[in-house]
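In the laboratory, one determines a bound structure by crystallizing the protein with its ligand and collecting diffraction data. In a computational setting the workflow is compressed into a single prediction: the sequence and the ligand go in, and a structural description comes out. We illustrate the idea with PPS.
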Amino acid sequence: MSSRLYFFAVCFGCLILAAIISFTRIYAVICNKSESILNYRGKSLALKTPQRHYSQEGGSLHGGKCHTISSDWVQHLKSSKELDSLGCKQKLPKVLIIGARTSGTRTLNRILGFHPQLATAAYEVKFFDKNYHRGSEWYRSQMPFSTPDQITLESTEGYMYHRNASLRVSKTLGDDIKVIIMLRDPVARSISDYLLTRHRIYDSKMTSAHYKRVFKESRSLDRLLVSGKGKHGRRGSTKMSYTIEDTFEKTVLKNPDLVSHKNIFIADSLYVYYLRSWVKKFTPNHILEVNAEKFARKPGETLAKVEEFLGVRPFFRPDYFKFNMNTSTFCLQKPQSICMPRLPVEYPVISEDAISKLRGHFENSCRYLFLLLKHYSELIGDIPLNYHPIE
Ligand SMILES: Nc1ncnc2c1ncn2[C@@H]1O[C@H](COP(=O)(O)OS(=O)(=O)O)[C@@H](OP(=O)(O)O)[C@H]1O
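The predicted complex, in structure-token form:
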């Protein structure tokens, strides 16, 4: 009798144990804790590192975005019935990407458009530099439709350079706005900007003179710029040089020893002059500076940093990005396989001599930039001679 009782007691104990184990497993699956259980059992070190709990693919909290994105990056708005049921509306942005030019702002903006909690404008609206006179209702009408839980983001690389943009942003959007600045090695940026502009001149159907005029007009808005006498922040654009020669060296070096500091490709890399007004206007926790080279090499890490800054759930896992040998860039694999098109620009070899002259030219502005942004250390002293971010 007592052995029977003992047998039942053991069976009962086993049943309770099995129930506890399966409950824990179900809990683990539902709450995404399976990693922690494995770590606990194996006493893995991984338990000590913070876990990123990624949000579900696609859709917002309320289940869906207001548009879909096709492989050519075009946003297709859903039917008005769907828009109504999702509560889609056009809202003013709460996040701006303001520059710098040719630093990957277009790519970052488009990738962020896949985050379930973000809605990004499909093109540069240029409101705070070019279209301010049109008013904030016009600006709102240019914004993407978004669900109530989504944050709207707009990206225009010219904002950073405009002398009144920071003031206009705080007036229109309030001081709670979050600002993302992408900064690239200034020499690399100047070269890239020159090559893209030259390519567009050769590629466009416009005559060279016509294109140069369009190019000049697009850059010579009321910008902060460096004057010839070394006093910074003077108003106007008459002193800028928009010369584009057939080589980069001829364009930016007045003679073999002198950098043409008023040349637009050089001036647009003097970040510190333009960022002063932004740093004065917005507190550090409202400004995120993104290292463009790091973004090009490890987009997953940059996206994690941006998600944290914006306070949205982690979505872009490192394996969402895959290096593409044809474009020499990272393309998105998930939630959609899509790649940023690159202009077929050939990268000529730039003489080491010209590069080291430019490094010398940018050294001071990098140092001041460091003081301004405190932790912007990557560009100082150890800029690789190789200007291309991918190579
Ligand atoms: N993933 C990915 N896909 C495509 N391009 C990438 C990517 N990551 C970074 N980059 C770099 O972005 C540089 C162009 O920057 P922007 O898009 O801001 O400039 S622009 O709109 O073309 O003027 C462009 O600079 P260049 O390499 O000089 O052409 C790219 O290197």
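The domain at 67-185+273-332 is CATH 3.40.50.300 (Rossmann fold). Keep in mind that any predicted model is a hypothesis to be tested, not a measurement.
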